[in-house]
Amino acid sequence: MGVKKGHLHSWVENQLMRNAYIMWGLTEAGYGDKLSKEIDANYKKILQSEDAYMMALMANTLSIMEDKRAEDLIEALIKMQNADGSWTGKSASITFSKGECLKIETTALVALAIMDWEAEEDLALRKAIDFMAKSKNEYGFGSTQSTVLAMKALVEYADYSQNMGEDGKIILYKGDREIAVFDYTKDMNQPIVFENLQAHFLMKKRKRST
Length: 210
What we know:
Blueprint: H1 5-28, H2 36-49, H3 52-64, H4 69-78, H5 99-117, H6 122-134, H7 144-160, E1 168-174, E2 177-184, H8 198-201
Antiparallel strand pairs: 1-2
């Protein structure tokens, strides 16, 4: 019994995504120096996939490794940014996220790659951060994975923005409503802290159906 072409293509893409995710995880854990063959074997395939989610995973892996190919991926991703500041994968994430959750996960991963590589893409980065901040609702940023990645990117941006060489402000939104503003200067050397945000981020208990 043969394998249908569509099913084979889907299996190859899923395997490529798993590879990208595993390489990122292992590199973050400090094992990147043992993955040079795997990175070389998957890099071109991921670049050619034009899947922003997989490309962002690989960009983070290469950035951690201080591999200049990260810059090529980031440049390609910048051209793929949506008008609302987001990026999205072609089908689903490693945790099967789709729709808005996939968009948030992908955008967070691209933002993390830009910051880690210290790419001169301030406008694209700010648009991405603004998109994620506005994506927060009373239940978080969607799925657990999208919430974790969005918070990771937003927290890292709070530190990163202090080193961007200019004054500015960080605005937090809940949905479309502004809930906090922090003005910073390029000469600041203390952590950026938002106070009294608990009430805005408490999870509402859902009523059980009877």
